[in-house]
Design goal:
By secondary structure, the chain is α/β, with parallel strands linked by helices. The chain has helices at 31-39, 58-68, 95-104, 122-133, 143-154, 161-181, 186-213, 218-247, 251-272, 274-283, 290-309, 312-324, 329-354; strands at residues 8-11, 15-16, 19-20, 25-26, 29-30, 49-52, 73-76, 85-88, 91-93, 112-115. The protein folds into two domains: 8-120, Spore Coat Polysaccharide Biosynthesis Protein SpsA, Chain A (Alpha-Beta Complex); 139-354, Four Helix Bundle (Hemerythrin (Met), subunit A), CATH 1.20.120. The protein is built from 13 helices and ten strands. The longest helix is centred in the middle third of the chain and has 30 residues, at 218-247.
Length: 355
């Protein structure tokens, strides 16, 4: 819903250690591009979005503004006018909260989820944005509510988040053991699905509990990531072993080896290309031919769909459903191919953008 009569503007004047924050990449895209993406659906159709920037930086931002909001935004100098709803490039905003704030006439600061003007690093802001963009597209409908109830019940107790993390991993490993040696039993299939579902709830609850108790720590985040990967690998290894022992087909063992290899390759090409992604993001400031923009707009939903297929929450729900029907082998087949293909596509995209 657009806010009629309300002038929506962007203040692109805030600066960071290396220059204007507007061009700093966040998950591979400039901060200003992300703000414009949020602002365009909310702004009045009869008023352009004014992007206020220092005059000497207009040349730097012109191409970025034209590409991110063609025909919907203009560059301006000086401070934003009084009474306008001002989005700032030193803020990260929650899209839903921003929409509600504008609809109800509230201050847009109520939609801020991260501030870059308080000594917080861009890297930390990127992690927060990644968490919010990818947080439980399916689990939020059921697991998050249960996890919140668990966390609120445990908040005043001696139970700490790392204990919940270990409990979630224990359930995952127990489910993997059942898959590996349990055999084709509908009762064991149901038990496996239940353990996977409980593990998802606990894996969600540990972070919530840490925030409620104020016990967030780098070690806790590290432990959660390591145990998540251990559980992932253990489950797929168990699937491969179970399929091999029931069929005698050595191809299942090869798939069991292909899965961790493909995932490792995908993670390494993603992490190893961070500097290149930053270069690509800054290069996006330059105007692009319309044909190039058309190709990008065509592939954007395809890329988002591919990324969603590999989302941890989507995969976890696939495990639960496939475990319940006794077809976890389909998860191994799918993702043993998925991660190598994602690695190849990511490398190809970087190579084409860099040429």
């Amino acid at each position: 819903m657009r806010s009629r009569g309300l002038q929506l503007v962007i203040d692109a004047r805030p600066r960071g250690p290396s220059g204007p924050l507007a061009v700093e990449p966040m998950l591979g895209r400039p901060l200003l591009a992300r703000l414009l993406e949020q602002a365009v659906p909310l702004a009045s159709q009869d008023r352009p979005i004014a992007v206020h920037a220092r005059e000497e930086e207009h040349a730097m931002l012109r191409g970025l503004v034209a590409e991110s909001a063609p025909g919907r935004a203009i560059l301006a100098t000086g401070p934003p006018q009084a009474g306008a709803a001002v989005l700032r490039t030193d803020r990260l905003y929650d899209a839903g909260r921003l929409r509600r704030a504008l609809r109800r006439g509230h201050d847009v600061e109520s939609a801020v989820v991260w501030r870059l003007d308080q000594g917080r690093s861009l890297a930390a802001a990127e992690e927060e944005l990644k968490r919010r963009l990818t947080y439980q597209p399916l689990g939020r409908f059921w697991a998050f509510g249960l996890a919140r109830a668990v966390a609120e019940a445990l908040a005043p107790t001696w139970v700490r988040p790392n204990m919940i993390t270990l409990a979630a991993a224990s359930l995952m490993l127990a489910a993997s053991a059942v898959v590996a040696v349990g055999g084709p039993s509908p009762y064991l299939a149901a038990a496996t699905a239940v353990m996977l579902a409980l593990a998802l709830v606990l894996d969600t609850a540990d972070g919530r509990l840490a925030r409620l108790q104020g016990t967030n720590s780098p070690f806790g985040r590290w432990l959660d990531q390591v145990l998540d990967e251990l559980s992932d690998m253990a489950l797929h290894a168990a699937i491969a072993w179970s399929a091999y022992t029931s069929t005698g087909n050595v191809g299942w063992l090869l798939l069991g080896m292909a899965y961790p290899s493909g995932k490792y390759l995908f993670v390494m090409q993603s992490l190893g290309g961070e500097d290149l992604e930053r270069t690509i993001a800054v290069d996006a400031q330059a105007p692009r031919p319309s044909a190039s923009r058309d190709r990008r707009s065509f592939w954007k939903p395809v890329r988002k769909l591919a990324e969603m297929a590999g989302h941890a929450d989507i995969r976890w729900h696939a495990w639960i459903v496939l475990a319940a029907i006794g077809r976890l082998d389909l998860a191994l087949i799918t993702y043993a191919a998925y991660f190598p293909l994602r690695a190849f596509a990511g490398g190809l995209r970087k190579a084409v953008a860099h040429v």
